[in-house]
């Protein structure tokens, strides 16, 4: 009986993990540049004393759906969307270079350019991009060049202050960290800027989450979880029946 109970328990645990993952995807259906997570697990044999007759499901690092989300025109000067493959370079809370597709940018009170999540944008020199305040206009070019017009300057007095670093590594070289940013699988590795990556100004890339697909997956996982619980209950009843037979004997 313990074999069925162990297998059902392991499967129910994996179903709960899958529900959490799909619920998180659904919660980010409107998050700019979000990449949907994919659940992954595989069967593993449990070794120990006696014969290796037990198996369990082992959760692996979640993969991601790297398909591009829908591009929405906003007309806002500080909104950018990466065209095709590529990533915007940002600094995470620890100062490590990370990568994102979230291009809803803003300027903080000190003049640092950051995205809506508060991550500092990285310039072509590898450091944060600083905007000399006050400015009356800001433009971000197709190649990531950031130009500003100082307050009070003539209409044609646009000055280039920096260029947003954009990279295009192979997606297999990246993983999503707990902060939602993508990073190199090689610790502390930074990718070189790629001049072929281009931006679309005045637009944002939406999430690539399919809400209907996520709901369907959650319903399927809930039903599968219920089946696993029923199997555990059946194993318990069979164990009680076996104990009764032994007492009668």
From TrEMBL:
Swiss-Prot/TrEMBL GO biological process terms: bacterial-type flagellum-dependent swarming motility
Origin superkingdom: Bacteria
Entries under Pfam families matching the protein: Flg_bbr_C (PF06429), LlgE_F_G_D1 (PF22692)
Domain Flagellar basal-body/hook protein C-terminal: 201-245
Cellular location(s): Bacterial flagellum basal body
GO CC terms in record: bacterial-type flagellum basal body, rod
Flagellar hook protein FlgE/F/G-like D1 domain location: 81-148
SUPFAM superfamilies: Flagellar hook protein flgE (SSF117143)
Keywords: Bacterial flagellum, Cell projection, Cilium, Flagellum
PANTHER family in the cross-refs: FLAGELLAR BASAL-BODY ROD PROTEIN FLGF (PTHR30435:SF18), FLAGELLAR PROTEIN (PTHR30435)
Annotated family: Belongs to the flagella basal body rod proteins family.
Subunit structure, as described in the record: The basal body constitutes a major portion of the flagellar organelle and consists of five rings (E,L,P,S, and M) mounted on a central rod. The rod consists of about 26 subunits of FlgG in the distal portion, and FlgB, FlgC and FlgF are thought to build up the proximal portion of the rod with about 6 subunits each.
Protein name: Flagellar basal-body rod protein FlgF
The species this protein was found in: Photobacterium galatheae
